[in-house]
Amino acid sequence: xxxxxxxxxxxxxxxxxxxxxxxxxxxxxxxxxxxxxxxxxxxxxxxxxxxxxxxxxxxxxxxxxxxxxxxxxxxxxxxxxxxxxxxxxxxxxxxxxxxxxxxxxxxxxxxxxxxxxxxxxxxxxxxxxxxxxxxxxxxxxxxxxxxxxxxxxxxxxxxxxxxxxxxxxxxxxxxxxxxxxxxxxxxxxxxxxxxxxxxxxxxxxxxxxxxxxxxxxxxxxxxxxxxxxxxxxxxxxxxxxxxxxxxxxxxxxxxxxxxxxxxxxxxxxxxxxxxxxxxxxxxxxxxxxxxxxxxxxxxxxxxxxxxxxxxxxxxxxxxxxxxxxxxxxxxxxxxxxxxxxxxxxxxxxxxxxxxxxx
Amino acid sequence: xxxxxxxxxxxxxxxxxxxxxxxxxxxxxxxxxxxxxxxxxxxxxxxxxxxxxxxxxxxxxxxxxxxxxxxxxxxxxxxxxxxxxxxxxxxxxxxxxxxxxxxxxxxxxxxxxxxxxxxxxxxxxxxxxxxxxxxxxxxxxxxxxxxxxxxxxxxxxxxxxxxxxxxxxxxxxxxxxxxxxxxxxxxxxxxxxxxxxxxxxxxxxxxxxxxxxxxxxxxxxxxxxxxxxxxxxxxxxxxxxxxxxxxxxxxxxxxxxxxxxxxxxxxxxxxxxxxxxxxxxxxxxxxxxxxxxxxxxxxxxxxxxxxxxxxxxxxxxxxxxxxxxxxxxxxxxxxxxxxxxxxxxxxxxxxxxxxxxxxxxxxxxxxxxxxxxxxxxxxxxxxxxxxxxxxxxxxxxxxxxxxxxxxxxxxxxxxxxxxxxxxxxxxxxxxxxxxxxxxxxx
Lengths: 358, 442
Known about the structure:
The complex is a heterodimer of chains A (358) and B (442).
Chain A: H1 13-16, H2 23-43, H3 46-72, H4 80-97, H5 103-122, H6 130-150, E1 163-164, E2 168-170, E3 173-175, H7 178-201, H8 203-213, H9 215-220, H10 225-252, E4 254-255, H11 262-275, H12 280-308, H13 314-335, H14 340-353
Antiparallel strand pairs in A: 1-4, 2-3
Helix pairs in contact in A: 2-7, 3-7, 3-8, 3-10, 3-11, 3-12, 4-5, 4-6, 4-10, 5-6, 5-10, 7-10, 8-10, 11-12, 12-13
Chain B: H1 2-22, E1 27-34, H2 41-62, E2 69-76, H3 81-91, H4 107-120, E3 124-125, E4 143-144, H5 150-165, E5 175-181, H6 184-187, H7 190-200, E6 203-209, H8 217-226, E7 230-234, H9 239-250, E8 257-259, H10 266-269, E9 280-283, H11 292-302, H12 318-341, H13 349-357, E10 360-361, H14 363-369, E11 378-379, E12 392-396, E13 401-403, H15 412-430
Parallel strand pairs in B: 1-2, 3-4, 5-6, 5-7, 7-8, 8-9
Antiparallel strand pairs in B: 9-12, 10-11, 12-13
């Protein structure tokens, strides 16, 4: 009853094509932003900022980057973590070697370098597709980590290859408290998510989707194959690079190359598969599921133990959590192969008809 | 009906929460953030089991420390930095005084926590792992790589080799190969071994083994080609038994392989079977269940059915006693802090930092603790957060580890210079002004 667009008439093209054409959606998004920017900083504590929300936002951004490439442009990639690593280490070097470098500038340089690396490793996409391309992007994963490990200059000759993020400051205001780091991450993620949402409705986004759906047909109607595919790699890697820089600066504070292993690439891939391939919202939902659910399960098992007053061996509980998590992933994929974003869409459609479905 | 049940359940949870805070007056909370699942679970559960067993024993035998009971809560980190940070954030505000001290038991997690814990005033004890240069207490006031660091260990290994060959001068022209886990952890000794190579004239070959290390044929073929006189094995987890098996395959004598202390537990040699016989490893704690402190743990904890291990054969294993050593330094530092800030009162993180920094466990105290030879004596100061640096060597005889040397001194001058150099670089990068150790208040 509440969620109904009856009576909302569009009299201009602009009104019809706006980002959220339904009034309720607009209200919901604005409310969400207000909550995230004002209410959460007021009520959240350090645990929530630094252990839950900030990593969630950072990984959402990485998933969003991969989703642009895999979900919208149809190019399978296993190099996400490598592009994140490029972003993190380049941002570090930019801060270290360029005097008076503003932190946002360093993030942008990190993203741009990641985009450049992404273009190089995207070149095979002009010839190969699908799983074969995934194997080619795997090369990025191994090469980047190898380079960071072997070339001392990248980690400023740190004996163990670990880098420590420098102090952050924006217009003289130090970003030290976890709340400030959260707000910085949130602002960057919000702007970039909005940009992605718009980009995917633009000509570029449509070209991506045309290539995803059938690249031969797309090239026949005049979409330049090379430019579009490489652009998809560049944009996606830019997002991943910024996510990597945020991972280093706003989340962990120190980064070792081992933080960006293939394991992380797979995790991000699972996020978009579970959240919804080809959906901005799906990237966020997937990241939330993969990062928060294991922690939630951990709390649940603690409560269960307290409630039932039974003492279980910790090893058994930990292993059981991993098993339940794996089982749930399979369950979700069977029930809704198109991901959590699709579930949300179905819920919205149902709501529009409620309470009188046909 | 259902709703009533839920309400009752919720109420009981709240009540349980209250009962914790009500009885929290005389408690000292130590987080147990270790790992019980995954490829490194033997290390995590063994070390975690040791420290918890020791704290349990203190509670059972002495009724806590001057009447303050030790409490702990387990949190699974999976040896994963992100989960480690989450566990830390979850437990740091635990009543009554927050986390007293944190043992991250992972070099990666230690690196991630250095800044956070320093800001939160919670000391980190990274015993035998973590950032080596944190031993400079002027730059890292809240980080304690206690007992010994990777760099100290590397110098002792070279000393051990020199002893075996009959003096440092015999090292000239000899070949030493480092087979290491290709990660931050494995690369840690390379600079110091290179420096020593220049000093003593041996030739260093480094062979990286990619994670996880279950395929090492090419590295050991290279070992066969270069024929090093000694091999230093810097492995972790499944890499260790694989290295020993591969060495046996290429016919490299195992009694010329020296492992780091994370390559020297029962779990590292048993899977290699007979291939491990004769293999030597370093250690800063000795295995065994005959020490008086271990007997007390058996009597007050295991005989009452409160022990951490279901598999009793792990009692007294290397990882277990290493955890007990961690328990000893933790409890001794709390005791010291209580003596200074008020007996019988829970202490805070800042007070704990003072306690660790003034820790002085000499042979006399070790005797009272029943831990002579289990761990080396240790004396921490503001300048030196390592406190000892002593290392022992042990050899696997096919059934158990046998200690073959006494405590050996590291090359302090060399290690200290490198530590100060690295620490001052860190201080410069982060804009930290090192503390003045002569003017040390809380």
